[in-house]
Amino acid sequence: MAPKKKKNSGPPSRVAADNRKARHLFFIEDEFEAGLMLTGTEVKSLRGGQANIKDSYAEEKNGELWLINAYIPEFSHGNRFNHQPRRPRKLLMHAKEIARLGGAVQKGGMSLIPLKIYFNDQGRAKVELGLGKGKKLHDKRETAKQRDWDRQKARLLKDHA
């Protein structure tokens, strides 16, 4: 009898775009994962790793969640059916989650910020959204002070040990 084949778990998840500045500009209170509805040339372009989500945000319209102002460049070998780089893209989540996020944005003065776009183990494009509140200038300074103190403390403990 032949040995059973192992299930292939697929390629490891790979980050296509990262919003590193989001944690500097916002207090991220909660994180969510959403699917991303893309066309074929957008997927190929994302796999190239040229996307930019620095100035993008998500918003709820008519019970649907949309990713606004995300830049996915045109595919280099695309033809006349290539996509528009900054078009709004639909995010896929359950209706209850969308309603809850929409309520938090409306009532709490929160923002939905895309933290990263990545491909999961099945090869599907996903967006990690952060529900956050914007930082003021003094909050940013406080965060920088705390980060510097943590580094200095780690150096002192390393030298002491």
Strand order of the largest sheet: 1-6-7-2-5-4-3
Proportion in helices: 25-40%
Number of helices: 4
Count of domains: 1
Write the CATH fold name: Small Protein B, Chain: A
* Number of DSSP strand runs: 7
CATH-defined architecture: Beta Barrel
Q: Please, what is the CATH homologous superfamily?
A: Small protein B
- From N to C, what is the helix and strand string? EHEHEEEHEEH
Q: Taking all residues together, what is the mean pLDDT?
A: 85
End-to-end distance, in Å?
Answer: 58 Å
Share of residues in strands: 25-35%
The CATH top-level class label:
Mainly Beta
| Cα Rg | 20 Å
Structural account:
- A hairpin with a 5-residue loop joins strand 6 and strand 7.
- It is globular, with a radius of gyration of 20 Å.
- It is 31% helix and 30% strand.
- Strands 1-6-7-2-5-4-3 form a seven-stranded antiparallel sheet.
- With 161 residues, the protein is of the alpha+beta class.
- Mean pLDDT is 85; it is low at 3-12.
- The protein has one domain (14-135): Small protein B (Small Protein B, Chain: A, Beta Barrel), CATH 2.40.280.
- It has helices at residues 22-25, 40-47, 95-108, 137-160, and strands at residues 14-18, 26-36, 57-61, 64-68, 89-92, 111-119, 125-134.
- The protein is built from four helices and seven strands; from the N terminus they run E-H-E-H-E-E-E-H-E-E-H.
- The longest helix is centred in the C-terminal third of the chain and has 24 residues, at 137-160.
- The N and C termini lie far apart (58 Å).
